[in-house]
Design a protein that fits this description.
This protein is α/β, with parallel strands linked by helices and 332 residues long. It is built from eleven helices and twelve strands. The chain has one domain: Alpha-Beta Barrel (TIM Barrel), CATH 3.20.20. Strand 10, helix 8 and strand 11 form a beta-alpha-beta unit. The structure holds ligand PBG.
Length: 332
């Protein structure tokens, strides 16, 4: 016997074919950006705080990026581990033209001219204090002095051939300053992907382990945002848009889907979301314990970020996800 029920939403879910037709959100390799860690020397090293990730030596970094690009991933973002003896209170190594990052940019662009190379602009890997900005005697993070150093860092990356610079420092006014510094030296085609809404998050823990870049004292709450705030994200994003950002980022991604959605509805710029190290590790460890199906949870986490409104996603799962998309083994 049937109910008199003319409206049955289940009709649109009754087969894989019809689900394909009505699916609202797509995920493909072109939406993914692979963050990569790198270090000096001739050998790569597994990262103990991030199982499945490596700190690559230059040669193997090029190989890894090539594999990602061959899978359809358009971009990588570079995170260097800087040797302790090069870390200083002024973070001068960050604008050394012969430093690890400029050499990596050159090697990557020479090997794969069509791969977009994105660099992180912030001082924490270079700063003996482990902060994204310069630290004053009394522990305060100096805004304007930091911005001047960030400009030198971004120019150094642009000169080496970076396509996009991504300031992750959360200092005030850095997007306008970077745009001006780049334009003055005729790098008008270098884009700025600003970490517009970057929260002071415990989900960054494993990443700081990977780079040995945790703050020596204090926390990052005077520059990164309070996880309780949403309106403030719109304020930050609006400023970055006015200052000339090309792409805005929300970070972390999963716990901040409402922020992604809010910015998507309010701002016309493309939105990036960063599925950070702690999000990666929670899925990895649950899967390693046999508690969740890694491939399915990864897809669901990424399609959720896309559905919230992110155009592109930085994720340590980028290669795995792209490989499954290519092989046609994604179960939707
Ligand atoms: C630092 C930076 C951080 C991440 C990206 N750039 C850490 C921090 O702000 O402390 C975190 C990425 C991750 O956790 O995956 N400028």
């Amino acid at each position: 016997m049937s109910l008199a029920l003319p409206i049955r939403p289940r009709r649109n879910r009754r087969s894989a074919a019809i689900r394909d037709l009505v699916r609202e959100t797509e995920l493909n390799a072109g939406h993914l950006i692979l963050p990569v860690f790198l270090q000096e020397g001739g050998t790569s090293e597994p990262i103990s705080s991030m199982p499945g990730c490596q700190r690559w030596c230059l040669e193997e970094l090029v190989k890894e990026a090539g594999e990602a690009h061959a899978l359809g991933i358009p971009a990588v973002v570079l995170f260097p581990r800087i040797a302790d003896n090069l870390k200083t209170p002024g973070a001068e190594e960050c604008f050394n033209p012969d430093g690890l990052v400029p050499r990596a940019i050159k090697a990557l662009k020479a090997a794969f001219p069509t791969l977009l190379v994105i660099t992180d602009v912030a001082l924490d890997p270079y700063n003996s204090d482990g902060h994204d900005g310069l630290v004053a005697e009394d522990g305060r993070i100096l805004n304007d002095e930091t911005v001047a150093v960030l400009c030198r860092q971004a120019l150094c990356h642009a000169k080496a051939g970076a396509d996009i610079v991504a300031p992750s420092d959360m200092m005030d006014g850095r997007v306008a300053a970077l745009r001006e510094a780049l334009d003055m030296e005729a790098f008008t085609d270098v884009s700025i992907m600003s970490y517009a809404a970057k929260y002071a998050s415990a989900y960054y823990g494993p990443f700081r382990g990977a780079l040995e870049s945790a703050p020596k004292a204090g926390d990052k709450k005077t520059y990164q945002m309070d996880p309780a705030n949403a309106r403030e994200a719109l304020r930050e994003a609006t400023l970055d848009e006015q200052e000339g950002a090309d792409i805005l980022m929300v970070k972390p991604a999963g716990p901040y889907l409402d922020i992604i959605s809010h910015l998507r509805g309010s701002i016309t710029l493309p939105i990036a979301a960063y599925q950070v190290s702690g999000e990666y590790l929670m899925i990895k460890s649950a899967a390693a314990a046999g508690w969740v199906d890694e491939a399915k949870v990864v897809y669901e986490s990424l399609i959720g970020i896309r559905r919230a409104g992110a155009d592109m996603i930085l994720t340590y799962f980028a290669k795995d996800m792209a490989a499954r998309l290519r092989a046609g083994t994604v179960v939707r």
